[in-house]
Amino acid sequence: MLSFDLRTLESNAARVDAVLATSDGVWLDSDVKPTEGVHVTGRLSAAGPGRFYFSGQLAGTSRDSCRRCLVEVDTNVSDDVHLLFAESGGDADEVEDPDVFLIDAREYHLDLRPAMREQWLLAVPALVTCREDCKGLCVNCGADLNLGACTCAPTLDPRWSALRSLDESAR
């Protein structure tokens, strides 16, 4: 469960152990979604009047294409999460602070799902490789160079021609 009654949090901290499913409506179509949901664990407690603090971890697996050869790659993602939720209309500094999640002072429930979605998106690597020594694809024919050399003739990048001519004149 990732939704909590704020009235009970004021007197007792809540233990969080839930999964944010990939089918949950909080995800946008453009998001890098987890393959099997994000497991969220931690503790949610009051941190003063109208303020709540979450401390815990999230973990899951993301699937993306290798940036060099386009092979599908599964990446384990985990991160420590520390979040502050504050009622709107409070301290002006909190309104400006991007690390503070504002909640409506009239609400009685705190939904952690949007904050966990944001933390997941920040934790997922932007670029992945299938392995450190991935050779990628041939720029001419598109052959996977991890499977062996292609039959293309080596090409020289024309942008380096000025430097090549300097090197040849120095010889």
Please provide a written account of the structure.
18% of the residues lie in helices and 33% in strands. The chain has four helices and seven strands; from the N terminus they run E-H-E-E-E-E-H-E-E-H-H. The protein has two domains: 132 residues, no CATH class; 34 residues, no CATH class. The strands form two sheets. Strands 2-3-4-5-6 form a five-stranded mixed β-sheet. The chain is elongated. It has 171 residues and is of the alpha+beta class. Strand 4 and strand 5 form a beta hairpin. It starts with a strand and ends with a helix.
Spans where pLDDT lies below 50 across 5 or more residues = none
Major sheet strand order = 2-3-4-5-6
Residues in β-strands, percent: 25-35%
Summed up, the helix count is 4
Using the CA coordinates, give the radius of gyration: 24 Å
Largest sheet features: 5 strands, mixed
How far from one another are the termini?
72 Å
Decide which structural class fits the backbone: alpha+beta
> Can you tell me the overall shape?
elongated
Order of helices and strands: EHEEEEHEEHH
Overall pLDDT, averaged?
A: 88
Q: How many strand segments? A: 7
Helix content: 10-25%
Number of domains: 2
Please tag this protein with its features.
171 residues, alpha+beta, 2 domains, 5-stranded mixed β-sheet, two-stranded antiparallel ribbon, 7 strands
Give the topology.
Elements lengths: L2 E3 H4 L4 E7 L17 E9 L4 E15 L6 E16 L4 H5 L3 E4 L5 E3 L1 H11 L37 H10 L1
Parallel strand pairs: 5-6
Antiparallel strand pairs: 1-7, 2-3, 3-4, 4-5
Short structural summary:
With 171 residues, the chain is α+β, with helices and mostly antiparallel strands. Helix content is 18%, strand content 33%. The chain folds into 2 domains: 3-134, no CATH class; 138-171, no CATH class.
